[in-house]
Design a protein that fits this description.
Elements lengths: L1 E3 L5 E2 L13 E2 L2 E7 L6 H6 L5 E7 L1
Antiparallel strand pairs: 1-2, 1-3, 4-5
The structure holds zinc ion.
The site of zinc ion (ZN) has 8 residues, from loops.
Length: 60
């Protein structure tokens, strides 16, 4: 599992780039939140997320 440094999106991939925003991926992140309904989620607004998926809370 890797997290994007730009959008915090978590992906299971061996690629080095985020499939969403082409940002750099890192395995150094902490915390995970899962956004199921971005339109309705307060957390999603805080994190700035608009796509369903898993996101890292903090990316180093
Ligand atoms: Zn990204």
């Amino acid at each position: 599992m890797r997290a994007c440094k730009q959008c915090n999106y978590i992906v299971v991939t061996k690629d080095k780039l985020c499939p969403k925003c082409q940002g750099e991926l890192t395995d150094k992140y902490s915390g995970t939140i899962i956004i199921l309904e971005p339109e309705k989620s307060e957390i999603a607004k805080v994190v700035g997320v608009n796509v369903v998926g898993s996101y890292a809370i903090r990316v180093k």
